[in-house]
Specification:
heterodimer; A: 115 residues; mainly beta; seven-stranded mixed β-sheet; four-stranded antiparallel β-sheet; 0% helix; globular; B: 111 residues; five-stranded antiparallel β-sheet
Chain lengths: 115, 111
């Protein structure tokens, strides 16, 4: 298996532009997570899907952030409009969701820079 | 509100010596704890875990200790190797599959 796939790996954009980050989870995994990594807060959970349904989006910072999971093999995180303070590394992770196996598998991340 | 805290942002250890990474948590309902390791430009990868019903779990050079009364978790690496140089994240879970991560500790093992 190729693991969790994220694209793009790097994104540089200007303030006010729309940014879309993409994630393909590991086949067969039914839970998907979006995290943001910053120096101050470490890895913050933004939103969590189970069987394509958003379970907890309390970590989404503002209405400028939205996430979708139209099917089991694809998810997007959109920021519109983007701001310089959104600059961070965004990770997608997936897991099988079984209680006995709780490991989350992370993608390589998307480094976002908003100028 | 950070429920999982790693108060040491960095740690340097000589090769062959013990590395001890610490983690504190505030939620007594957490029932499962994990350590993840992250190299630059890569995603975190799972290292070792421990259930709240145990106080120690060992896997080769890595041992995780859990002190529930102190709400404290530690990762011991013995002996430390240069390839262990990475950022280590502590994580905790109390419901479903939602994990709460710390801010990470950057470990440097000096050859």
């Amino acid at each position: 298996d190729a693991g969790v796939i994220q694209s793009p790996r790097h994104e540089v954009t200007e303030m006010g532009q729309e940014v879309t980050l993409r994630c393909k989870p590991i086949s067969g995994h039914n839970s998907l997570f979006w995290y943001r990594q910053t120096m101050m807060r470490g890895l913050e959970l933004l939103i969590y899907f189970n069987n394509n349904v958003p379970i907890d989006d309390s970590g989404m910072p503002e209405d400028r952030f939205s996430a979708k999971m139209p099917n089991a093999s694809f998810s997007t995180l959109k920021i519109q409009p983007s701001e310089p303070r959104d600059s961070a590394v965004y990770f997608c992770a997936s897991s099988s969701g079984r209680e006995s196996y709780n490991e989350q598998f992370f993608g390589p991340g998307t480094r976002l820079t908003v100028l | 509100d950070q429920q999982v805290k790693q108060n040491s942002p960095s740690l340097s250890v000589q090769e062959g010596r013990i590395s001890i990474l610490n983690c504190d948590y505030t939620n007594s309902m957490f029932d499962y704890f994990l350590w993840y390791k992250k190299y630059p430009a890569e995603g975190p990868t799972f290292l070792i875990s421990i259930s709240s019903i145990k106080d120690k779990n060992e896997d080769g050079r890595f041992t995780v200790f859990l002190n529930k009364s102190a709400k404290h978790l530690s990762l011991h690496i013995v002996p430390s190797q240069p390839g262990d140089s990475a950022v280590y994240f502590c994580a905790a879970r109390y419901t479903g599959n939602q994990f709460y991560f710390g801010t990470g500790t950057s470990l440097t093992v000096i050859p």
